[in-house]
Specification:
- The chain is an alpha/beta fold.
- The chain folds into 2 domains: 69 residues, Rossmann fold (3-Layer(aba) Sandwich), CATH 3.40.50.20; 118 residues, 3 Solenoid (UDP N-Acetylglucosamine Acyltransferase, domain 1), CATH 2.160.10.
- The strands form 4 sheets. An 8-stranded mixed β-sheet has the order 6-9-12-15-18-21-23-24, covered by helices on one side. A 6-stranded parallel β-sheet has the order 7-10-13-16-19-22, with no helix packed on it. Strands 3-4-2-1-5 form a 5-stranded mixed β-sheet.
- The longest helix has 12 residues.
- The mean pLDDT is 94.
- The structure holds coenzyme A.
- The site of coenzyme A has 13 residues, from β23.
Length: 215
């Protein structure tokens, strides 16, 4: 995946953004609200299909989704739901949220719609795709490539030059040694230690991590 300059520019002009909408009044959204508050970015409203039941979240109005010209972040943890919503035409502009406590190299690239949680570290040369979640305390070392819609769960550690495919989740606390390639839409279960490449569309688990089943 070749990330374009557009990604780098968007991450560099982050400080100019003052307003954002969210899609999804979820627990994940609560964390993104904290991140945007810490960045002094106002959240004007939250879209949710369940707006009749959830009317507000942390004092922010929850309303029916409708097309907007404003920047939006899809605040839903499920990777395939995020992919579908990003292609639904709800907006052409997707924002980025990076907590001030995260350390992101100026030589890293981050795609639109991606959120970087508290204490995460993204090192030089790393490329993060669109609508990814880099969760609390995750560590992504130099030259990693994280494709669109992937989720790097809390405290997961990726050594240098790891490639994570589209829509893949790296489970909480997992470790991946350098130069490993993990396929797309795969789940690496919690606490795994990955020492060899993993295919697309599978569940893999354990220390040392082994293929378990296709999904
Ligand atoms: C929840 C979870 C443990 C179960 O996954 P699942 O698809 O239902 O998998 P199963 O329970 O059918 O297990 C499949 C196999 O993997 C094994 N397995 C599952 N999780 C494992 C783990 N964390 N460590 C070691 N083995 C594990 C099971 O024992 C089973 O092995 P077997 O076939 O040899 O008996 C897994 O989805 C997971 O770890 N998800 C990541 C959760 C996470 O990190 N969330 C972060 C949210 S922010």
């Amino acid at each position: 995946m070749e990330l374009t300059l557009q990604h780098a520019q968007q991450w560099n002009i982050l400080t100019e953004i003052t307003n954002m909408k969210l899609y999804g009044a979820s627990g994940h959204a609560k964390v993104i609200i904290d991140i945007l508050n810490a960045c002094n970015i106002n959240i004007s409203e939250i879209y949710d299909d369940n707006h009749n039941e959830i009317v507000s979240l942390h004092g922010i109005n929850v309303c029916q989704p409708h097309k907007t010209d404003e920047e939006i972040i899809i605040s839903i943890g499920n990777n395939s739901v995020r992919k579908n919503l990003s292609k639904s035409g709800i907006s052409d502009k997707f924002g980025i949220a990076i907590h001030p406590s995260a350390i992101v190299s100026p030589y890293a690239e981050i795609g639109e719609g991606t959120v970087v949680m508290q204490g995460a570290i993204i090192q030089a040369g790393a490329k993060i795709g669109r609508h990814c979640i880099i969760n609390t305390g995750a560590s992504i070392d130099h030259d990693c490539l994280i494709e669109d819609y992937a989720h790097i769960s809390p405290k997961a550690t990726l050594c240098g030059n790891v490639h994570v495919g589209e829509g893949t989740q790296i489970g909480v606390g997992s470790s991946i040694v350098p130069n490993i390639k993990i396929g797309k839409w795969t789940l690496i279960c919690a606490g795994s230690v990955v020492t060899k490449d993993m295919p697309d569309n599978c569940v893999a688990a354990g220390n040392f991590c082994e293929f378990k089943k296709f999904i």
